[in-house]
Design goal:
The complex is a heterodimer of chains A (416) and B (151).
Chain A (H helix, E strand, L loop, with lengths): L11 H10 L4 E3 L7 H13 L6 E4 L2 H4 L3 H10 L13 H8 L6 E4 L6 H9 L4 E4 L13 H16 L5 E4 L11 H17 L4 E7 L4 H18 L4 E7 L9 H18 L3 E3 L12 H16 L12 H13 L5 H10 L18 E4 L5 E5 L17 H8 L1 H9 L7
Helix pairs in contact in A: 2-5, 2-11, 6-7, 8-9, 8-12, 9-10, 9-12, 10-11, 10-15
Chain B lengths: L2 H8 L3 E5 L8 H12 L3 E4 L6 H11 L3 E6 L4 H13 L9 E5 L9 H7 L3 E4 L5 H14 L7
Parallel strand pairs in B: 1-2, 1-3, 3-4, 4-5
Helix pairs in contact in B: 3-4
Classes of the chains: A alpha/beta (416), B alpha/beta (151).
Keywords (chain A): Cobalamin, Cobalt, Isomerase
Protein name (chain A): Methylaspartate mutase
GO molecular function (chain A): cobalamin binding; methylaspartate mutase activity
Chain lengths: 416, 151
């Protein structure tokens, strides 16, 4: 609506780069409310937090799967949704929600077909979103991978029309937990290459904190090296996700894990962190809990320093082999990705999607590092023999490894 | 009770494990598959974001002894009520045991009555642990005398 000021904000990528240049980690919540007033209040609170922040608008899951009929029914019935229905709210409602925020907002959605979402965000003057043809297809949909690749090709082309377009790979977060880091790094790089091929010039590369700080630091060092090698001309930064698996239940444990992720981000030279809150294990966080998490993470980041070297246990070599093998399958990267999954040469552990081979499996070794138990048809070596067969109890144990480590030490824990 | 004993108890049952149309969570599905397999149940796992018509089609084709719906995204009650209507509208699935569990709405309220009256055979709250679910599966096997739905 013409009476409302358009959202004026620094470009997403430029803001992160400026913060990184002055040694400040950008922190960002996960946040999405169906109610426009609540969504705006959340964004304003994010902007006012004592930290360098970027705002988040997470969409509801009906929008994610493209079920706009269900969105409109829910809105008409006044029912609650689990995120902001960007495509179906009236244009003026969203324009007012976003008006004059003065800081960049990233639209987060999880969709294997983001075309309408990209059009909607561009329509509101936004330019930053995230995902990828693999990472928003295999874990979160039953859409055939080839279809998702085509949708994402078109979505990239739409988004690339905006001069400040920013796209983040979600490939470094596959399944949230129990995926060995070399595959996360390879998928993050491959999705970034896909974005670049389809016209996106400002790209962030994700990596989700896993189970072992040293291994995570090595993975991020590998990611940095491979961005330089395969997407050398992109305006790029790395984004770390605070642990996405089963989260500590105690406030001390939750904050300890958050602080560890913030320090990891700084040590490894990442520009941005997506935080988790003390409510994570219990329910969706309130705005206040999100602000507390942002400020806590920013404080923890200030106490950490960039590290110049990390141990090499082979993450870089494995990720390189995975990427080079995919690139050898076809001249077109989208086609190569489809071929790689169809033949199990990329294979995500515990992923139930019909296009994932499901022969690979990771496990946690005695030191808490994620290792390969079986690699399926991927061109890498399995680690030393792990447990024979996973049981329900064994799976729960592995899923709860990080929760246990942080909850059991939270009483001794004393500050960021 | 140990695993092998339970396996004998329910050997022969087949189950479909599935999420709902808008729900992308899958660790719950991976875990439930392992739990059921350890009870001796054969499992077809449909994975994330399964449209109602796919669930109905798979159930009509496979004729499972049990359908396990698991949802964590807060839309489970809305989507579950819609799904069970579609399942019960299929003549072959009128009496198929269908259960649902997880976090079923955004507000963590009690939806059991609504889901049961809509046609689910049981509703499992995610705070109650797995014992009630395991008991249900064992009872199902026991009720049959021999594996239900033997083909």
């Amino acid at each position: 609506m013409s009476l409302l000021a358009p959202p004026v904000a620094a470009p997403f990528g430029a803001l992160v780069a400026a913060c990184q240049a002055r040694g400040e980690l950008v922190v960002q919540p996960r946040m999405g409310f169906a109610d426009p007033a609540a969504m705006r209040a959340g964004l304003l609170a994010t902007g006012a937090a004592r930290a360098a922040t970027i705002g988040t608008v997470t969409l509801d899951s009906y929008t994610r799967v493209g079920d706009h009929g269900a969105v409109r029914q829910a809105l008409a019935a006044g029912a609650d949704l689990n995120g902001y229905p960007l495509v179906d709210h009236d244009h003026d409602v969203t324009a007012a929600m976003l008006a004059g925020l003065g800081f960049p907002v990233q639209v987060r959605h999880g969709s294997a077909d983001p075309r309408r979402i990209v059009l909607a965000l561009l329509d509101h003057g936004l330019h930053a979103t995230e995902g990828g043809p693999v990472s928003y297809c295999l874990p979160y949909s039953r859409t055939p991978l080839a279809t998702a690749v085509e949708h994402w090709r078109q979505a990239c082309a739409l988004l690339a029309a905006h001069p400040d377009a920013h796209l983040e790979t979600f490939g470094g977060c596959m399944m949230g937990q129990l995926c060995p880091p070399s595959l996360l790094v390879a998928l993050s790089v491959l999705e970034g290459m896909f974005f670049w091929e389809h016209g996106i010039r400002c790209i962030s590369f994700s990596y989700a904190q896993q189970t072992h700080p040293g291994q995570d630091e090595e993975a991020l060092a590998a990611l940095r090296t491979l961005i330089g090698r395969y997407v050398p001309h992109a305006r790029a930064h790395m984004v770390v996700y605070t642990y996405m698996g089963v989260y500590p239940r105690t406030p001390g444990g939750a904050l300890g894990l958050l602080a560890e992720s913030a320090r990891l981000a700084v040590r490894a030279g990442a520009g941005r962190l997506i935080v988790k809150t003390t409510a994570e294990a219990h329910r969706l966080p309130t705005v206040a809990e999100n602000v507390a998490a942002l400020e806590y993470a920013a404080a923890a980041a200030r106490s950490a320093h960039r590290r110049s070297s990390t141990a090499d246990t082979g993450v870089l070599a494995e990720a390189t082999d995975l990427i080079d093998n995919v690139l050898s399958l076809d001249d077109d990267l989208g086609t190569a990705l489809v071929k790689a999954f169809a033949t199990g040469q990329l294979d995500v552990p515990f992923c139930l999607h019909p296009d994932n081979a499901g022969r690979a499996r990771g496990y946690l070794d005695a030191e808490g590092r994620l290792r390969w138990q079986r690699v399926g048809a991927m061109p890498i070596a399995a680690g030393p023999p792990g447990p024979d067969r996973i049981t329900a109890a064994g799976l729960l144990d592995a899923l709860r490894f990080v929760e246990r480590r942080f909850d059991s030490t939270s009483l001794e824990w004393s500050g960021p | 009770m140990n695993g092998p004993t339970m396996s004998i108890e329910v050997a022969g049952l087949s189950a479909i494990v599935t999420s709902l149309s808008s729900d992308a969570h899958t660790w719950n599905l991976v875990y439930l598959q392992l739990v059921l397999e350890e009870l001796g149940v054969r499992v077809a796992n449909l994975g994330a974001c399964v449209p109602d018509e796919v669930i109905v089609g798979e159930c009509a084709e496979r004729r499972p002894d049990l359908v396990v719906v698991s949802s964590l995204n807060g839309h489970g009650c809305r989507d579950g009520v819609r799904l069970i209507g579609a399942l019960r509208a299929e003549p072959a699935l009128v009496a198929t045991p269908v259960v649902i569990g997880g976090k079923l709405d955004v507000a963590a309220s009690d939806n059991s009555a609504r889901l049961l009256s809509a046609g689910f055979d049981a509703v499992f709250d995610d705070t109650a642990g797995l014992l009630p679910f395991r008991s249900f599966v064992r009872t199902l096997a026991g009720r049959a005398g021999l594996p239900i739905g033997t083909r």
